[in-house]
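A common beginner's mistake is to predict each chain separately and then try to dock the pieces by hand. The better habit, illustrated here, is to supply every component at once so that their relative placement is modeled jointly.
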Amino acid sequence: MYASTLSPSTACLICDRENSPGSILCGGCAAPMALVHATEAAQRPPRLVTILGDSNVGKTVYLGFLLDMLTQRANGFEAIPRGAQSIELSQLVISHLAWRMFPPKTAMEADTWKWSYFEVCKRGRKEKWVDLITPDLAGEAIAAEVSSPTTFTIIQKLLDRTAGIMLLVDAAAAANGSAQPDFFALKMLSYVDALGAARKGKKIDTPVAIVLTKADYVPECFEQPRRFAEANLNRLWNLCESRLSRYEFFATSVVGSLGYAVDPKGESAIPVPLHTSLRGVLEPFEWIVNQL
Amino acid sequence: MDCQSVVADRAAAVIETSRIECDQAVFTSIPSPMGRGYRIVAASGGVTANERREIIQRSPSHGALASAAADAAAVVSFGIAGGRHCVMASWHAEAEHTGRGGFRVHTQIALLDDKQFAAVACDPFAIEPALRAARGAALVADTRLPMLTFSPSIDRQICDAASIEHMATITAPVLSGERVLVTRPLTDASVAVLFDMLPLAARRGVTLCTGLRFAAARALGIVFAPVKKGEVEQILHDHPYVTDESFLTNVAKRGVWSDWLQFASRLIAAGDRRRLRRWTDRMDTPRTAESLGMLARLAQSLDAIESMIEADLSTLLARPYPVTNDALVLEVQRSLTEAAQQRLTRLRAEAAQNAESIGDAIDLSWP
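With all components supplied together, the output reads:
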């Protein structure tokens, strides 16, 4: 009886490619097939929230702490992981920072990316359960796709299906005068805008939370993130006004204080996170969930 | 007479004298005004947008080298969009600049057209030394590189018998067109033996990766990667690979290629890779197992000529050769016939001389 209910193949949740039964990763986009099996058992359709950002902006650390805070029921949230692999990212981040190390760089190879699937609810008068899928993407893969579309088609597939976007931008670099964060964010949103050609000039309706990371370097960012963005990320600010119907700016910080370890030759300095001090991690996520 | 004098030196000269100028690129992670993180940081002018895209898709990034050692290295070879052939060599460089542990992975890339790839006998290990030398040049991000100019060379290091045997078992599925996952650790010198055993026409289609962690997205035909048992099962389930382990315990699985692989292994073990290479470099059209087996048997007979007695030689000369259009086989058949006739003539002459000497001795002994 069980055999007769098995389908000959299983479609990937992200790219719709048919995979043989029992496949661990999708043969097309390397997304875990466990997501499909988990969604089959779910009562609600899953919502994809995509975390985007340049290399070294802090995506892995932010997402790891966010998921861990949700699991620890911070701020009235309750989050239930669907599958053991959903815990890997937060375990990676928390474990490394406990050892005063940043987690390893996320590789560009898609089969190494960590995917998390959580059932999330904010307890209160109006409880709403949301099934969230969040992949931890490599910044270089995002940058490569933005520069040359179809280099990493999984990114396009994710954005086609995403219910919400968190665009992480390095506030410290921007405050330091670098135009790199502004240009990257501009290119990223332009790419997202171009994907929705069918909208025919209408604004992007997908909620976009622009998260200003490493804001501990720029404390004023917490007080007025919008004003900071307008002043230091003006290109991004202007595009948000023109092309997004739902967007908000947030500031976040994870590291409380940073030391630098210098090698004996004095040739390189490695940043050492001395302790964590989370600030502004939940707010962007809460805003996105409220938009869904 | 042996195989060496049979086969013209033309093929050997191709790889030893050509000087090649080709496009090159560097894929790595160094900060620059235009960006940071893994990307093509510099390239020569002829690298197209489609080629750049594919290079980015297939190049190794952080932590992709199979070994965590500072002297880890990798080689990747595949056909690229647009018809050229891409050979990459990767190494660990200094510590990763954002301080997240591990080394920066530096990948030097060469792009060769059909003619250039044929000039290196379709052997990526002939280009690897040039890529290693190019790595030493000062690198400035976001600049245009000059063309890569080099003379291909093959560094024929000695391989132990176990490695030769292992490579022979891997060559069998490659010749059959299967995708192979090799989990047993092998040195580049051992892996290079594969290209000696493969006919030139087969080498042309080989896509290979050695020294990198397995990544299905690279979609390569031969992958040398240390993979744990559980992961092997996962890979085999999701992708159409066969593993070397499935062949190691069953030499019979070499199947139709046994004769050729046995012959090739014997030459390599005897330190005669150059001789083997002269043969395989001339095989620029697809070869069947029958054809390769025939060549191997003919070559073995040719090598054994000097130890054959008159009866064996007569049998050899009387036996008709299988009909074939293969120019190389016909050449070896002719040489074998010639060598057998020469030896037979020599043996008969010696026999006649010996008989005469005995006759004289008998005459002298009679009063």
